[in-house]
């Protein structure tokens, strides 16, 4: 499932490609990906200008000039492609937004969705989310304050979107490896120095992953060399049995909170 770095990468690329442009056509192949009947969705979205694109947690928000918004969550298997009809991937497209002869294809939205929302509806949809870990107001002091309310395993804590928004299964593994902390370790067992290290690792791992373009396998447009660079820079996630880049011991896999979790049992303490 795309996490904060992947959606931030998409946000930046979409700002370059479609911000300020008018939607000239809407094609819906799967009505279940929407929150409205197809005809109503098309009526509300078609001919609207995309004023801007923002990210909140694992969501993308397209701001339309009628004051409404499109809220995208890709969930498991969803991805985006931008290009003309000749460049379109040979995959089933659930939703297509056209910008002249260029099109934004929403692919793999079997679990994901694209909802048309008013501002009050959008606020309700996002009100449960915790703070953004890369915003300037997410300070060490704020992180330490939030930690006081947590009692469970660090892995589970990082996955909690009401605690911190945007971190999922993949980057929680990478953050804990970077911080040299075991995923099963309880938040209440952390010493002050470990808390500081965890905060710093959240910042470092997420920022690096954004610079590498996230982990997505599929390019966003033809010739895209940015998207997906983080996948080859993973240290532990999905690398069971491989040598830990730090100590050389085999990476192990366990299940925590019904999630496959990868870590080094030697250098994570």
UniProtKB/TrEMBL annotation:
The keyword Zinc applies. It comes from the Bacteria. It holds the Pfam family Fapy_DNA_glyco. Its cofactor is Zn(2+). InterPro entries: DNA_glyclase_Znf_dom_DNA_BS, FPG_cat, FPG_Glyclase, FPG_N, H2TH_FPG, Ribosomal_uS13-like_H2TH, Znf_DNA_glyclase/AP_lyase, Znf_FPG/IleRS. Keywords: DNA damage, DNA repair, DNA-binding, Glycosidase, Hydrolase, Lyase, Metal-binding, Multifunctional enzyme, Zinc, Zinc-finger. This is Formamidopyrimidine-DNA glycosylase. It comes from Lederbergia galactosidilytica. Its EC number is 3.2.2.23, 4.2.99.18. Belongs to the FPG family. Residues 235-269 form the FPG-type domain. Monomer.
